[in-house]
Design goal:
mainly alpha
Length: 86
């Protein structure tokens, strides 16, 4: 994630969630609990719609829709034997 003016709260929250996930994974690993953190890439929202109009905003020039992330997360969470994700 890149820093940007006006993004202090967003950047802090996103980084905080990532560190909580990493810390929980380390804390709970000895008990056999696996911690998964879901951090999707760019998803079009009112927050970033103007930025996404710039073709250089994302390297792949594409973004996800809310529904594509939701269905992927649901498939992963509801799987009987979810794959190992490094």
């Amino acid at each position: 994630m890149d820093a940007g003016a006006g993004l202090v709260a967003y950047a802090s929250a996103k980084t905080g969630v990532m560190q909580v996930g990493r810390s929980l994974a380390l804390e709970l690993a000895p008990t056999g609990v696996t911690v998964n953190l879901i951090a999707p890439g760019t998803i079009e929202t009112d927050f970033n719609r103007a930025a996404l109009a710039d073709p250089g905003y994302t390297p792949t020039h594409r973004q996800s829709a809310h529904c594509s992330c939701q269905s992927a997360v649901m498939r992963f969470c509801c799987a009987d034997d979810p794959p190992w994700l490094p």
